[in-house]
Write a structure and sequence with these properties.
The chain has one domain: TIM Barrel. The protein is of the alpha/beta class and 283 residues long. Strand 1, helix 2 and strand 2 form a beta-alpha-beta unit. 35% of the residues lie in helices and 17% in strands. It is globular and about 50 Å long. The structure holds zinc ion (ZN). Zinc ion binds next to strand 1.
Length: 283
């Protein structure tokens, strides 16, 4: 009799199905491996943090979604509350923002801001030659493209984030929508953080990039550096890019971070809420 070769993962799949079936019969909570958490409720995954929470908090932002790049599906499938920063104007901007939210991740608008060097015409960047009103209109337009966005962080921006007038116009829209802002810190002279504080916008600043070197070992090392920062300061925020390698390193390392007592949380949980005050009336 011919026998079908079973895939290697068959026992695990069978075990998972059994747990699901038994769980369904007896309303037991399914204790499936993390990879099955695709069925989480839409919205940001709940992270139980009490007022007496003492665990170090680590937020991880994944940049550059919205363009269907390799690794998007793997990153979105990670069953941990990450923050997905979605670029506007992409062929999959709305879809990937929605998928991120459906999978329980936090969604940010990843706002393209003019860098010092060359940049492509699309997505439409906030450039320093635009008037204040044109900048505000562009940010509002980009926000409309990214459903569920609860915050904004900059994509590139080595020129525009250092320009006070441009930074203010951008942040006025962030404040107007009641969003949080994360300075990706692509340029050491960025004034975004300073102005966000002035405007009373909840703020966090990127502490380090995970994948300046796109090798698994380098990403892993950076992630644990971020964890050490979180342990030293109570909270930290790190930033990486959508990529298959990023997905596989995070899948391996986040459980280890959690075992080490670190809470991985959405970016909005590490913003400096204490700088927020009733927003000034903005024009
Ligand atoms: Zn980016």
């Amino acid at each position: 009799m011919a026998r079908w070769p079973l895939p290697r993962c068959a026992p695990r799949v069978a075990a998972g199905l059994a747990v699901l079936l038994v769980g369904a019969m007896f309303h037991l909570p399914a204790t499936l491996p993390k990879a099955s958490a695709a069925a989480v409720e839409p919205g940001v995954m709940e992270v139980r943090l009490g007022p007496s929470e003492t665990r170090p908090l680590l937020a991880i932002i994944i940049d550059d979604l919205g363009w269907g790049v390799l690794g998007t599906a793997e990153v979105l499938a990670l069953p941990y509350p990450l923050t997905m920063a979605v670029l506007p104007d992409g062929p999959f901007t709305q879809r990937e923002a929605r998928q991120a939210w459906e999978r329980g991740h936090e969604v940010f608008l990843h706002l393209p801001m003019e860098p010092k060097g060359a940049f492509p015409p699309v997505p439409r960047f906030v450039t320093v030659d635009l008037s204040d009103e044109a900048i505000r209109a562009r940010v509002r337009y980009h926000l409309l493209q990214v459903p569920y966005a609860t915050g904004v962080n900059n994509h590139m921006g080595s020129r525009a984030t250092a320009d006070r007038r441009v930074a203010r116009a951008v942040l006025e829209v962030v404040a107007e929508h009641g969003l949080v802002f994360v300075d990706s810190r692509t340029w050491h002279l960025s004034v975004m953080g300073e102005l966000a504080t002035e405007l009373g916008i909840p703020l966090a600043v990127n502490q380090l990039f995970l994948d300046n070197i796109r090798e698994a070992e380098a990403i892993r090392r950076q992630l644990w550096r971020g964890a050490a920062l979180a342990q030293a300061r109570g909270r930290a925020l790190v930033l990486g890019h959508v990529h298959p390698l990023m997905a596989s390193v995070l899948a391996e390392e986040i459980p280890r971070l959690q075992e080490a007592g670190i809470a991985v949380v959405p970016a909005s949980r590490v913003v400096n809420w204490d700088v927020a005050r009733p927003q000034r009336r903005l024009r």
